[in-house]
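Regression test attached.
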Amino acid sequence: MSYCVQCGVELDSTAGRCPLCGTPVYNPNQPVDRTSPPPFPAIRQEVAPIDRRELAVAVTAVLSSASVFCVLLNLILVGRSVPWSAYVAGAAALLWCWSVPHLLARRLPVWGRLAIDGAALALYLLLIALLTGGLGWYWSLALPITAALCAASLALCAVFRKKPSLLSAFMAVILCIGLFLLVLEFFIDFTVSGSYRPFWSLIAFGACLALIAPLLVVRLRPGLRSEVRRRFHF
Amino acid sequence: MPSLPGGWSRLDNAALMYSALQREDYSAVYRFSAQMRQPVDPVLLQQAVDTTLPRFPGFAVRIKQGVFWYYFEPNHAPGPFVQPDIANPCQPVRFRKGEDWLIRFFYYERRISMEVFHALADGSGALTFFRTLLAVYLRLCGHDIPNEGGVLDVTAPPDPAEQEDAYSRYGHARKCLGMREPPAYACLGEKEPFYTLNVTMGLVSVAQLKAVAKGYGASITEYLAAVLLESIQIRQRREGRRKEKQVALAVPINLRPHFPSPTLRNFILTVRPVIDPELGDYTFPEIVSQVHHQMRLHINRVEMQATIAGNVALQNNLLLQLVPSPIKNLALDLSYRLIGNRPYSTTLTNPGVFKVPAAMKEHIERMEMILGQSYTARSNCACISYGDILTITFAGIVKDTDMEREFFRHLVREGIHVKVISNRKE
């Protein structure tokens, strides 16, 4: 029988390492038994992912019945002049796009999911623009802002996929917010006055940079990082 | 509570909590295993399951979601089928798959294992079932095993009293006690990938352990709880916290010796042995003494009855009853986070000695118990003894082995021989 030289516990004859500390077993008198079955089976039982089709059907049924009901109500009670039910039906379609494809298409990459969400939002805004006769603001303001929002979300997703530290993640979020505000003012200025004169977004961006700077110093200096972690741990 | 017209039955107080909390990354499933002297015959084991299960209708159920509460109904689906054992035991059950059994049976070499969803029964009830199953299996193997010493007669009709809700029976007191406790050190670690349960077992001699525990004036459970508290405190100290939290254990107590009941369903409460490192550094004998006195103080009939009454009163609250079950699940989940989980660093359970009729003794080598993955990323500890072997099992979804390493090293330092086996990949 072999014992762990670190822990002092007896080990199973099939163990090549101590399960407690990982110390390898070197016992010239009794080599590791590779033929006997280990104390526990090695075969993992893979677990099938949860079937979300039922939930997808339920969501579809609820949203479609709400839309149909509103359209009928609109036709019967109010007449065809005020198509308020189109907003409800559009919102239901938007919610459907935001939920059902994600339930069914598990392997869809993040950029694909964001593209679907962004496209659905853009289409819903287009519907509102058509109903209110405001295609002008749609092309110059709503569509570019939606695209910027999608781009910012995509950038953040790319950052989070690398599993950054809490500090790095926080810096990335602040930077994204600052950049988004710059872009937002650009499109607002362009729509309102036709030229870009940045003002408030620069203040907001400066504040974001002022927040990021000390965090960056903490992030880059291990001693300081350790001190901060000790003082702020929770 | 016996089944109601239509065959369905209500969940007991503990089962309501376990069913509300069940999710993909938390498993209220525990496992008992018997290491036999001879390799297991799966065909005979399947016959034994088929013969034994009708005697225990409380285990042959599936769980369904009602408007206000979950409930059990008889499961007429084929099974449960005996299957080859797996490396990742105690997987969570899924309620949505209506045909899913809430008990499972496995075999591996000489080991027979049974996994039970905690809403069905506590350790005491499940061990009665398992003991009877082993007796039936050994009979099918050609051995003469009498119906005595806790082995039930599988030819007899089921006893409705075994399905009583003992919490409701004893849940009456003039004052109801709550369970509000301060948060404890969480003892969390890095998570393993999805559905991985690391199991580390230590096999120790009961006689040696009893002698050492007696030297401290404590029982085996009290001594093991003290070693575990010390191991967790070592880990907390290593983290270098400026303010250290309490280290506390959830130790389930079988209520049947205090409140007579033939029930095979849940009938347990937990006590909370605790040390507060902010008060100062405890020596190990001081920890043992602390645990010993805390457990003796709180395991008393009157206090436990008031706690049961508090739990049952909450369950019978009309306002709470009228809340739809999905919302109630969210509320119970939140209350478990705050009251049920946070005040404890980990769980230590010890169902005690597994007693069998004399004719069965020679066929079983040892018993094992494994707790399923915890609500948070930490390891739980379960012990069970058979003959002179006490099996101490740490099971969890954490990668590191700090807690169990300190625990077993302490036993070795006290002169106790420990043999360690594990399912961790080398």
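Expected vs. actual: identical. Chain A has a mean pLDDT of 87.
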